[in-house]
Design goal:
By secondary structure, this protein is α/β, with parallel strands linked by helices. It has a domain of about 160 residues: 3-Layer(aba) Sandwich (Rossmann fold). Helices cover about 30% and strands about 25% of the residues. The chain has a 6-stranded mixed beta sheet, with helices on both faces. A 4-stranded antiparallel beta sheet has the order 2-1-4-5, covered by helices on one side. α6 links the parallel β7 and β8. The longest helix is centred in the last third of the chain and has 16 residues. It is globular. It starts with about 25 loop residues before the first strand and ends with a strand. Bound molecules: adenosine-5'-diphosphate and magnesium ion. Adenosine-5'-diphosphate binds next to β2 and α1.
Length: about 250
């Protein structure tokens, strides 16, 4: 192919006013292509995620559902930059996460991410309030961390528990501290893996409400849950089976 020397390259930049403008396309915050995670090698290899393509718009809230072992937590850990795919690409906010060095990835997580993972526990030697404050500090919040931490604990109903160590809290209370820690920093991306798993229905609703409020103020939310009621309340639901997306629907 050779170019036409008489063609004016600026022509393509002029809008054609006879055509109505396209509605704005929402920017994808998360763009996963062919995301694959294989555990083990050879005859013992097992595929936890199998060529997952997933695009999530900025400010979107997506519930990830599926039976136990379908790859939900694996997907969540990769999107959160805690695990890496064995194949495929993951771009978040224009950054190619799967190629990032470990130290850069750790900084990226500290700046952009809120996580509530069942096995990502609180720091045992810090009080509930200090755990939340540390999250704010890592996110680069410089002022009023103590007050913001107290306010976040108040929102999960733990205003009076700020001075307790994790060991002095029940499992459900610890989970709410983890939610307060993630929510306080108003992250660009929140990845929550069964955030209501050890909560009674009252506290589950409070936590779900907080997460939905975050999405309403611009945070992109990936909510992993096996609770069909919660999943149905999310604006979009992606279903996994055997590491593959089998359904992706937006609530009418
Ligand atoms: P879910 O969260 O939907 O229950 P997971 O993502 O935890 O599913 O697991 C998906 C598959 O990957 C399962 O078959 C599980 O056994 C496997 N898997 C997860 N973590 C590991 C690991 N650390 N080592 C080996 N296999 C794993
Ligand atoms: Mg899981």
């Amino acid at each position: 192919m050779h170019s036409n020397p008489t063609a004016d390259p600026t022509l393509i930049l002029r809008p054609d006013r006879s055509v109505p403008p396209e509605p704005p396309v929402p920017t994808a915050l998360v763009d996963a292509r062919g995301l694959t995670r294989v555990w083990g090698t050879g005859s013992t290899a097992s595929t936890a995620l199998d060529h997952v393509d997933l695009t999530i718009g900025a400010g979107e809230m997506v519930a990830i559902v599926g039976p136990s072992g379908s790859g939900k937590s694996t997907l969540g850990a990769i999107v959160a930059g805690i695990d890496r795919p064995t194949a495929g690409s993951l771009v978040i906010g224009g950054t190619r996460l799967d190629r990032m060095r470990d130290d850069a990835l750790a900084r990226w997580r500290a700046r952009n991410l809120g996580i509530v993972f069942q096995d990502f526990s609180l720091i045992p030697t810090l009080t509930a309030a200090e755990n939340v404050e540390l999250g704010l500090e890592l996110a680069g919040v410089r002022r009023h961390r103590r007050a913001q931490a107290r306010a976040a604990l108040d929102r999960v109903g733990l205003a009076r528990m700020g001075n307790r160590l994790p060991a002095q809290l029940s499992g459900g209370e610890q989970q709410r501290v983890a939610v307060a820690r993630a929510v306080a920093r108003q992250p660009a991306l929140l990845v929550a893996d069964e955030p209501t798993g050890s909560l009674d229905s009252h506290n589950g609703e409070i936590v779900f409400g907080l997460i939905r409020d975050l999405a309403a103020t611009g945070t992109t939310v990936v909510l992993i849950t096996h609770d069909p009621v919660l999943a149905a309340a999310a604006p979009r639901m992606v279903s996994l089976v055997d590491g593959r997306i089998v359904d992706d629907r937006v609530r009418p």
